[in-house]
């Protein structure tokens, strides 16, 4: 479904990612792990097209998207929940969710899919509140619902549990499990919490110094691997 081949990307003169290759199959939850600063967010931005690849390729459903704009990638079915949420603080909750329809994948304008909101039932009760007035956990739910409004075939989730209360973390875990159980949407999840990724993931990649240092299934993610690549 998603194939990243020998990707190189960075900022200015700095090269952050080198020869990164990974794949996500339909319906799969693939987890991207690594210590702070190894390039997880850079990889997410490169897949979404927010950051241009210097070398290598990004393909989705057999189509090369390497030189395509982020909007084109969204129209092809990729949803993105960025690190830090990036909701619009002056817009209402309803208006923020509506922005998820801008990918133009066939939904009627201003009609939010029930499936996007059903997973976060608290949001409709807040439709008239400004996004900037919500708590961090509520903003994360809003960013997630905004991405789901486009009815994506694939979700990129960048640190969805960062800085939010445990109850919301559990809600997000439940949503990911629900999406996984439906089998209709693949997920690439960048997350620091080892316990969290183990509870939802099918396959795992570990980034170290901008490169894929390890990959494997849950049974192979043992203490030696954790100690070598994840322990601070």
TrEMBL record:
Signal peptide from the UniProt entry: none
Pfam families to which the protein is assigned, alphabetical: ABC_tran (PF00005)
Domain ABC transporter: 2-232
GO molecular-function terms, A-Z: ATP binding; ATP hydrolysis activity; branched-chain amino acid transmembrane transporter activity
Keyword line: Amino-acid transport, ATP-binding, Nucleotide-binding, Transport
Family annotation (InterPro entries): AAA+_ATPase, ABC_transporter-like_ATP-bd, ABC_transptr_urea_ATP-bd_UrtE, BCAA_Transport_ATP-bd_LivF, P-loop_NTPase
Source domain of life: Bacteria
GO biological process, one term: L-amino acid transport
Protein family according to the UniProt entry: Belongs to the ABC transporter superfamily.
Name recorded for this polypeptide: Urea transport system ATP-binding protein
Species annotation: Paenibacillus phyllosphaerae
């Amino acid at each position: 479904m998603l194939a990243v081949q020998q990707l190189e990307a960075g900022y200015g003169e700095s090269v952050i990612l080198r020869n990164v290759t990974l794949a996500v199959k339909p319906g799969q939850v693939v987890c991207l792990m690594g210590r702070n600063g190894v390039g997880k967010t850079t990889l997410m931005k490169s897949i979404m097209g927010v950051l241009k690849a210097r070398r290598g390729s990004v393909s989705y459903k057999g189509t090369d998207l390497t030189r395509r704009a982020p909007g084109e990638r969204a129209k092809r079915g990729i949803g993105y929940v960025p690190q830090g949420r990036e909701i619009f603080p002056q817009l209402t909750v309803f208006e923020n969710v509506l922005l998820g329809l801008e990918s133009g994948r066939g939904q009627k304008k201003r009609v939010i899919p029930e499936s996007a909101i059903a997973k976060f039932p608290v949001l409709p009760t807040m439709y008239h509140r400004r996004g900037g007035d919500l708590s961090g956990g509520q903003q994360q739910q809003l960013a997630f619902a905004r991405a789901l409004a486009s009815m994506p075939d694939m979700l990129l989730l960048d640190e969805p549990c960062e800085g939010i209360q445990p109850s919301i973390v559990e809600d997000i875990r439940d949503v990911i499990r629900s999406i996984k159980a439906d089998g209709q949407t693949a997920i690439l999840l960048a997350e620091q919490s080892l316990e969290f990724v183990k509870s939802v993931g099918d396959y795992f990649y570990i980034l170290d110094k901008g490169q894929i240092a390890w990959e494997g299934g849950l049974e192979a993610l043992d203490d030696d691997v954790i100690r070598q690549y994840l322990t601070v």
